[in-house]
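Technical annex, item 7. During the second reporting period the consortium partners agreed on a shared format for inverse folding records so that results from different sites could be compared directly. Each record opens with the tokenized structure and is followed by the designed sequence. A conforming record, contributed by the partner at site C, is shown below for reference.
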């Protein structure tokens, strides 16, 4: 059974930094993709970063240059390092995982709140 457990989020002032982590379990000897999504208040959930098993990463334009999503394959942990945070980054952040051949994301973390104050 695949499980994704996210770290606790937090609150920071604009311009600050915050790191999240997502630990995956249940994948055994099979490559899988991981991703970060976020849902802003009143908005549809949007992709932040998608990371392949080889570490190749795609970022949303809104976070390019500010966020990075390194992946530790030995520990099955995906990180989200967020810098230069702005109030518009305030959202519930979710990690997701699935086989890279899948057209959707079957497994989701519990979500963690990130709040950025002006």
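Designed sequence (site C submission):
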């Amino acid at each position: 059974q695949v499980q994704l457990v996210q770290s606790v989020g937090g609150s920071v002032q604009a311009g600050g930094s915050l790191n999240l982590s997502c630990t995956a379990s249940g994948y055994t000897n099979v490559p899988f993709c991981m991703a970060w999504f976020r849902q802003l208040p009143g908005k549809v959930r949007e992709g932040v970063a998608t990371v392949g098993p080889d570490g190749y990463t795609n970022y949303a334009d809104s976070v390019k240059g500010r966020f990075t999503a390194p992946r530790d394959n030995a520990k099955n942990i995906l990180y989200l390092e967020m810098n230069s945070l702005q109030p518009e980054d305030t959202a519930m952040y979710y990690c997701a995982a699935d086989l890279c051949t899948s057209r959707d994301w079957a497994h989701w973390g519990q979500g963690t709140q990130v709040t950025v104050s002006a």
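The mean pLDDT is 95. The longest strand covers residues 18-25. All partners now use this format for quarterly exchanges.
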